[in-house]
């Protein structure tokens, strides 16, 4: 699960290289290979210049459905954040930060300062999707986390993305989706109306689904498909559940429970 997203790209590139290599080999080797014309050696009475047919050009699949990707075309202005949304997000963060400062100060230090409205608006433009109000509230509290190692993670490995990471991850996913050219991948592997909000360092993560503007929380697996079955409906609710797990020590989503490492950092442990 925690393998690099780069593997998906490597596989795609490797496939193209293999195909091109085969085409090249068939074209220049001659002999009795399929796809090339073979001629016997020329003789003085029947001079002949070897001639080889050109293999049919290979073409990559092309999407025939709308990927939803509108990179660089997002709204320049942010939608207003309701006061109730801000209060709820901040209340959840207050609980999380209080526990981290008392028990895992190393992880507490990984929380980045708030993003500016200008940075959030820029990320929205680059991503090409309207940011849900709760995401704006999250970024106004913390512009993601620093690093992956001891950085704060929603259980078990989901590190909240910064404005820069949101935009760059959206670009990567859309580039791979479009270059892959498979219609079936649109919406099942990724969609341009998804906003990445957390990454696990291995190519998977969490997103908010803006296809209908609801901001439904889901997770993606770069080697499989997206899912909405194992997460609460909102990012805020996930943070609230995380706060409860920290305060009680009880397992949260997926059965993971919080532990503090020797480095005084938060980790999530799956009971054996």
TrEMBL record:
It comes from the Bacteria. InterPro entries: Knr4/Smi1-like_dom, Knr4/Smi1-like_sf. This is Cell wall assembly regulator SMI1. Residues 35-59 are annotated as: Disordered. It comes from Amycolatopsis roodepoortensis. The lineage of its organism: Bacteria, Bacillati, Actinomycetota, Actinomycetes, Pseudonocardiales. SUPFAM superfamilies: SMI1/KNR4-like (SSF160631). Residues 39-59 have a biased composition (Low complexity). Residues 114-241 form the Knr4/Smi1-like domain. Pfam families: SMI1_KNR4.
């Amino acid at each position: 699960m925690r393998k690099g997203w780069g593997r998906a790209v490597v596989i795609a590139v490797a496939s193209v290289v293999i195909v091109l290599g085969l085409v090249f080999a068939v074209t220049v080797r001659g002999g009795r290979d399929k796809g090339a014309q073979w001629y016997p050696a020329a003789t003085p009475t029947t001079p002949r210049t070897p001639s080889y047919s050109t293999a049919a050009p290979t073409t990559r699949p092309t999407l025939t459905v709308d990927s939803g990707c509108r990179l660089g075309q997002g709204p320049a202005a942010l939608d207003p954040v309701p006061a109730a949304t801000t209060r709820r997000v901040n209340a959840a963060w207050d609980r999380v930060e209080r526990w981290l400062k008392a028990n895992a100060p190393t992880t507490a230090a990984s929380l980045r300062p708030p993003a500016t409205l200008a940075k959030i608006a820029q990320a929205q433009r680059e991503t090409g999707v309207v940011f849900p109000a709760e995401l704006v509230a999250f970024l106004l509290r913390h512009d993601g986390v620093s690093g992956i190692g001891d950085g704060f993670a929603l259980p078990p490995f989901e590190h909240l993305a910064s404005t820069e990471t949101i935009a760059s991850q959206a670009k990567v996913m859309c580039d791979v989706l479009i270059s892959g050219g498979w219609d079936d991948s649109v919406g099942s592997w990724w969609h341009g109306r998804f906003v990445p909000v957390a990454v696990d360092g291995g190519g998977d993560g969490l997103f908010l689904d803006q296809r209908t503007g609801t901001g439904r929380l889901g997770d993606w697996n770069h080697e499989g498909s997206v899912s909405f079955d194992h997460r609460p409906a909102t990012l805020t609710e996930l943070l609230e559940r995380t706060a409860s797990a920290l305060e009680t020590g009880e397992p949260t989503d997926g059965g993971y429970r919080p532990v503090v490492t020797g480095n005084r950092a938060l980790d999530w442990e799956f009971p054996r």
